[in-house]
Amino acid sequence: MPREVCDYYQVRETIGSGGFAQVKIAKHRLSGETVAIKVMNKVALGEDLPRVQREINALRSLRHQHISQMYQVIDTPDDIYIVMEYVPGGEVFDYIVTKDRLLEDEARKFFRQVISAIAYVHNEGFAHRDLKPENLLLDRYQNIKLIDFGLVAKPQSLQDNLYTCCGSPAYAAPELIAGKPYLGSKADIWSMGILLYALLCGYLPFDDDNTVKLYKQILKGEYETPRWLSHGSIKILDSMLQTDPNQRITVKHLLSHPWVMTNYGVPVEWRSKYKPGSIDSEVIDVMSQYYGIGTTEMSNEIAEWKFDHVCATYYILCNMKYQGKRPRLLQPFVRGVLKEKNT
Ligand SMILES: Cn1cc(Br)cc1C(=O)Nc1[nH]nc2c1CN(C(=O)N[C@H](CN1CCCC1)c1ccccc1)C21CC1
Predict the structure, then answer these.
(1) ipTM of this predicted complex?
(2) Rounded to the nearest whole angstrom, what is the distance from the C-alpha of residue 53 to the centroid of ligand 1?
(3) DSSP H helical segments within the chain, as ranges?
(4) Which of 7, 100, 105, 130 is catalytic?
(5) Does the Cβ of 238 fall within 6 Å of ligand 1?
(6) Cβ(329)–Cβ(286) below 8 Å
(7) Which of 115, 129, 230, 343 is the most buried (most CB within 10 A)?
(8) Cβ of 288 below 6 Å from ligand 1
């Protein structure tokens, strides 16, 4: 581990590895808080390096209550380290498996949070393009946190079909499978339909070990509706699993869809709870005391959102407040050599 990482984090075990990346648990030395560090080797990344840059650029401009927060980017000659919010509840995928399938009310609770995250991502000018239960984590309050923006794209631009070579086909929209130019935002809605079906049924609407057969099923767009699905569930699934992307519902209409409103009575709150540019004054107080500079100077430093260690410390202290903990920093900040008390 290079010094830029070890100086600030005590890196511990690997909790996930996929493709060209690993995710390790680590402890932020100044606060003692747990973070997740995504490690990618530049040589192993090869031509996938632009994907990581796209993910980092997207995460730089995304701050939302249902997206795992990026804290810091450490770029070394051999590897890229992305320090992120640690989400302790595991994957929604595992949660569904343990419960076989979710009752409509519980599925609705999760799905409203997914709609909130995707409405925000689309509004910020991105499409996720890899929505699936494995990319949804649950935090300590059973709230959804969206991860893996490695396939993120600008939804307004028509995408070429790099996706089919590296996405998960079972969640891929028909226009993607057909190799047509497609809009990322409409492909996201299809994946949300697959996701809701998986939450409500415990299995996938289109599934076959033979990829060719799977593609045929997706292009046909016909799926089974088990007897336990309510009429309302069938209607909202149908509005998302439209093979013609222009017939598909948009995320804006999902915000207040009758099925989504049931038992809530209010549309999904999709805006970020973090006002753009808003800075938490209590956290600034803790940090300005710690670093021995004024609160204005500290706020100006944070407002540059450099995703360096100072920025990470700010985000981590904010996350402590979210967890109901008092934001504080442990190690005395050694400003040069500490002067002897009696001098
Ligand atoms: C699974 N699990 C169980 C507990 Br308890 C905590 C976790 C957990 O993973 N927590 C967690 N917090 N923060 C993160 C994670 C996982 N994680 C991830 O980014 N995890 C993804 C998981 N993808 C799902 C499909 C393919 C890989 C990952 C991406 C590349 C390599 C390895 C893992 C972050 C960093 C954002």
Answers:
(1) 0.98
(2) 18
(3) 3-6, 42-45, 49-60, 92-99, 104-123, 162-166, 174-177, 184-201, 211-220, 231-240, 251-254, 258-261, 281-291, 295-302, 309-322
(4) 130
(5) no
(6) yes
(7) 129
(8) no
Q: What pLDDT, in 10s, does the model give residues 51-66?
A: 899 999 999 999 999 9
| pLDDT bracket for residue 4 (50, 70, 90) | very high
The amino acid sitting at 153 is A
Name the residue among 5, 7, 4 with its Cα closest to residue 331: 7
**Helix, strand, coil content of the chain in percent (nearest 5):** 40, 15, 40
Distance between CA 9 and CA 202 in Å, rounded?
38
CA distance to 119, 132, 144, 169, per residue, from 91 (Å):
21, 10, 9, 19
338 pLDDT more than 50: no
Instruction: Please indicate whether residue 51, judged by its CB atom, sits closer than 6 Å to ligand 1.
Output: no
Are 236 and 260 in contact, with CB atoms under 8 Å apart?
yes
Distance, CA of 45 to CA of 137 (rounded, Å): 25
Q: What is the pTM of this model?
A: 0.92
As given in the structure block, the two tokens for residue 241 are 């699993």
Q: One-letter amino acid identity for 3?
A: R
Q: Which pLDDT value is given to residue 159?
A: 60
Which residue, among 228, 203, 195, has the nearest Cα to 99 in the 3D structure?
203
Mean pLDDT confidence for 306-332: 94
What is the rounded CA–CA span in Å between residue 220 and residue 37?
41
Report pLDDT digits (tens) over 203-224: 999 999 999 999 999 999 999 9
pLDDT in tens, 186-200: 999 999 999 999 999
- Asked whether the beta carbons of 204 and 198 are under 8 A apart, the reply is yes
105, pLDDT greater than 90: yes
Is 208 annotated as catalytic? no
